[in-house]
Amino acid sequence: MSDLTIGRESVGASVRSASDLYRAVWRWHFYAGLLVLPFMITLAITGGLYLFKDEIDAVIHSDLKRVEVQQGASRAAPSAIVAAALAAHPGTPIKFTDPATPDATAEITVGTEKEGKLVVYVNPYTAQVLGALPDRGTVTWTIRYLHSLKYFGNYARMLIEVAAGWSILIVATGIYLWWPRRQTGGVLSVRGTPKRRVFWRDLHAVTGISVGFFIIFLAITGMPWSGVWGGKVNEWANGNNFGYPAGVRVAVPMSGEHLDHVAKTSWSLEQAQVPQSAAGNAHRSQTIGLDDAVATFDRLGLHRGYAVNTPTTADGVFSGSVYPDDLSQQRVVHLDQYSGKPLIDMSYADYGPLGKSLEWGINTHLGQQFGLANQLVLLAACLAVILLAVSAAVMWWKRRPAGSLGVPPMPVDKRVFAGLIAILAVGGIVFPLVGLSLIVMLAVDWVYLRTRKQRSV
Predict the structure, then answer these.
(1) Which of 32, 255, 271, 426 lies at a 20 to 30 A Cα distance from 216?
(2) Minimal CA–CA distance to 22: which of 450, 331, 411?
(3) Does 311 lie in the same domain as 175?
């Protein structure tokens, strides 16, 4: 055999190998898109809206959340504000939320027998009750629950983890498919018109490469909320020392209650246990009261807008917590209800390296870390994700053969396909639910191939 013949065979094998790899990647990019894009559209719409949660609530619920600033007027005592709320909606006071700004109302969470938990909105200057909503009953809380699929139970929420994991893989395979291969268009420019498939292919590719980083960032920073991966990482990162970061003084009696069950808290403190008021003080007939507790929190310098959860048992505590846009101002303080002594006082600075990194990611994910610029950049990313999904659907529809699903062809060399699966399996190990879904998709693909073979016989 001549050297020329050997050279031609070598080049041919190389071309076939590259073509097989392209087919394998394209096939799994297609399958991942079928699985992920419907969720990504929902997440993009609800996430884009939730970026502007404060602005939306300020408009829709302005009659409850906003008051006229009374210059020079002092605010009513917290106890008087709570008393007014209870007079309008009898029940058990659970939480007092300090007005975050001069034109904001005070919010009192009340447990009632007939209506469940209510948030009562009170003018902080006059103690006038402006109205009430169910706890977490604002429009943006509804959007948040839709975003996390919380309305549909824990099993549905696991789909978020699957979607997030596969979105990372879909970006990785998309970069390979986008990578320039001698073509002059479809890399950073869009060819053709909307009537042609190449227009939608280029639009999909250019949009994907432009927004890929943001998709990966949002997927990773959204993972802490996921049911399996997020829960396990939280246990690993914050499962010791009563759920507090290492170095935080917790040499006080602890209850079995977790902070996340008592009040909305940060991801890093979901497992943090609530301390107990000193047993030696329980014989006292009176606690320091809400007014003194609020005065103590003010003196300690908690950021405005903090929430105070009142003790419900003889050994309970006053818990002050605040999670403003500025991460450095995050803080949780627990006070002994009898002496007013701070039992635990911790802030963002006390978190460990992993906790700080994840909290920074979460804060940026929510559009809070960099103000309006943060909101606008992520809104653009959400709109681009929707465009990705639409362009993918149109491109598939134009390419799909009549009467067929239009799945990209299998590679000729099955070893290439197996190698790609091995790489994807690594992602499945890191994200267990993604690995489980990979097995399911392999089974579906096998059934699809068997069905096609039977039809062709």
Answers:
(1) 271
(2) 411
(3) no
SS3 letters for 140-161? HHHHHHHHHCHHHHHHHHHHHH
- Name the residue among 365, 421, 416 with its Cα closest to residue 32: 421
For the sheet with 331-336, list strands across it. 129-134, 116-122, 106-112, 92-97, 307-309, 317-322, 331-336, 342-347
**pLDDT tens for the chain, residues 1 to 457:** 554 444 444 444 444 566 778 888 888 888 888 888 888 899 999 999 999 999 999 999 999 999 999 888 889 999 999 999 999 999 999 999 999 999 999 999 999 998 899 999 999 999 999 999 999 999 999 999 999 888 877 777 778 788 888 888 889 889 988 888 777 777 888 888 888 888 998 999 999 999 999 999 999 998 887 767 777 777 776 666 677 776 676 778 888 788 887 777 887 788 788 899 986 555 555 889 999 999 999 999 999 999 999 998 888 999 999 999 999 999 999 999 999 999 999 899 988 888 889 899 999 999 999 999 999 999 999 999 999 999 998 988 888 777 677 777 777 776 776 777 777 777 777 777 888 888 887 887 778 777 776 666 5
At residue 317, the 3 state secondary structure works out as strand
DSSP assignment string, 255-287: EEEEHHHHS---GGGTTPEEE---GGGTT-S--
Q: Looking at the domain assignment, is residue 272 inside a domain?
A: yes
How many other CB atoms sit within 10 Å of the CB of residue 451? 10
Residue whose entry in the numeric block shows the structure tokens 């929707």: 386
Q: And the tokens for 21?
A: 């790899």
What span, in angstroms and rounded, lies between the C-alpha atoms of 99 and 80? 15
- Kindly state whether residues 187 and 258 are assigned to the same domain: no
Separation CA 49–CA 72 (nearest Å): 36
Residues 43 and 186 in one domain: yes
Phi, psi angles (nearest 5°) of residue 225: -85, -10
CA distance 363 to 374: 10
Angle formed by the axes of helices 289-300 and 78-88, nearest 10°: 130
10 Å Cβ neighbour count for 103? 14
Q: What are phi and psi of 28, to 5 degrees?
A: -80, -25
For residue 341, give the 3-state DSSP assignment: coil
Q: State the Cα angle at 139 between 137 and 143, rounded to 5°.
A: 105
Q: How far apart are CA 84 and CA 127, in angstroms?
A: 6
Domain match, 87 and 160 both? no
β-partners of residue 332 are: 321, 346
Q: Note whether 250 and 310 are same-domain residues.
A: yes
Residue 79 is part of which domain span? 69-124
